[in-house]
Predict the 3D structure of the following.
Amino acid sequence: MDRIVPAEWAPHRAMWLGFPSHGELWEDDLTPAQAEVAALARALAGPGGERVRLLTGTPEGEAAARALLAGVSGVEIVPGRFGDIWLRDTGPIFVRVGGTLEARAFRFNGWGGKYLLEHDDTVADQIATASGAPLARTEAVLEGGAIDHDGFGTVLTTAQCLLNPNRNPGWTEAEAERVLAQALGARKVLWLGDGLKNDHTDGHVDNLARFVAPGVVACPVAFGKDDPNAEAYDDAARRLSAMTDARGERLKVVRIPSPGFVDDGEGEYVPASHMNFIVANRAVVCPIYETQASRFALEALRGLFPDRAVIGLPSTAVLTGGGSFHCITQQEPA
């Protein structure tokens, strides 16, 4: 039976969002991270036109979420259990199989064994149960942030992540493509090289390049002479410009300014990316940073999504955990 992962810009029934709930993980960043996620929930539920299903991981997290979002229409707090908030990677990927929506669960191994946290391997079950979608399992290790979809069966990924031996030892491009075709209906896989430096996900593509429309891919252009990812950005753009999608159409590549060098306050680069935006029903919400490049990135996104509001929100505290808005969300297609 034909199966396909709908594009992110297709209509959603709900948007799942993880809420920072563990003080021992977030430490001093817990309260500011909770405030940033609450702001994201408001934007998604308001101008974004989403039914936000906010998954909390502890009773303390639930209490904080209810206090921050009391009276906000369109936000449903769903008490649950998780190791941390990265639902893009621990939750299911929703696949349309004929006329049925299926939740597809892959194995999650803590990004190659780096962060193995209790309950992360149960998140896909929790979301599938709450959504009412049947759950189908695939034994391969895969995180949702490692792939991006155009709704026609084209999948965008990086070899650095998907072929990393810390996920599926011995995987080749052919084996990965076979699994993606069987589980997600992939008709063509587009392979990029390396992702961002200091990214514990080993180069997730949702920090590097994203489909923004059929046949159109956005990827960064370096901002500032000290941008540590200039070479990776240019390599991705060169590869993409020579590629065609599953329909046989040549890709159009749009370059969007990166945030440049963003540090952790102690001079160490952190993998900030404007590519980690989330496409909601009526808006696009993009992480922004204290750099002029964010203003330019928002203007570029407005040109790419003229039918949606484009909203920039700070993601500094969330980024201390290793990701941003796309990483902590998962759309449930309509």
